[in-house]
Design goal:
The protein is of the alpha+beta class and about 180 residues long. Helix content is about 35%, strand content about 20%. It is globular and about 55 Å long.
Length: about 180
């Protein structure tokens, strides 16, 4: 996660960040590149008939990319969608929380902080379960099965996506 996004701490367990839908793809740089090359040759060599008139070329070279709407955070961090049912996600989260707890203890977190983490994480997980089917799940492009899973849902307006990230699963890095 990045401080570019406005992180909101929820229940001392997770961060939520409002996202945006952005449009990617659909660029057609082929015709533009041909026209620029033609203009360069024309201006450089003063040739008007070099046998490559961009307007007489194929009308549309097309594009491999199609415009598509994506969630900005998913695109920016190259997250990959994955699937879980309740049982699988519960199993993953138990394993993940054990790993976070071990990391907290190894880094010298006091017992009170570890206990608070366990309590808050369990409490927030109970809030996820009733709306479980509404979430999409994303992982890093490495698809590390033991890594953090970012949950994405939409606000009540049905338009604004937001991501939920387990707070204690993140570590602060200065860049």
């Amino acid at each position: 996660m990045s401080d570019v996004y406005d992180l909101k701490e929820i229940d001392n367990a997770v961060y939520e960040v409002d996202c945006k839908m952005i449009t990617i793809g659909g660029e057609n740089v082929g015709r533009r590149a041909i026209a620029q090359a033609y203009l360069f040759v024309l201006l450089t060599f003063g040739l008007s008939d070099i046998g490559a008139n961009p307007s007489a070329e194929e009308a549309d070279e097309g594009t491999d990319d199609q415009k598509q709407q994506v969630i900005d955070i998913v695109h920016s961090f190259r997250l990959v969608q994955t699937n879980y049912d309740k049982k699988q996600y519960t199993s993953h989260l138990k394993s993940y929380m054990k790993a976070v707890k071990a990391k907290m203890e190894a880094s010298g977190a006091d017992e009170a902080k570890v206990k608070a983490f366990e309590k808050n994480a369990a409490g927030y997980f109970k809030k996820i379960l009733p709306n479980f089917k509404d979430y999409d799940f994303y992982t890093g492009e490495s698809m590390n099965p033991d890594g953090i899973v970012v949950l994405v849902n939409f606000r009540e307006d049905g338009i604004t996506p937001y991501a939920t990230i387990w707070k204690d699963g993140l570590s602060e890095m200065k860049v």
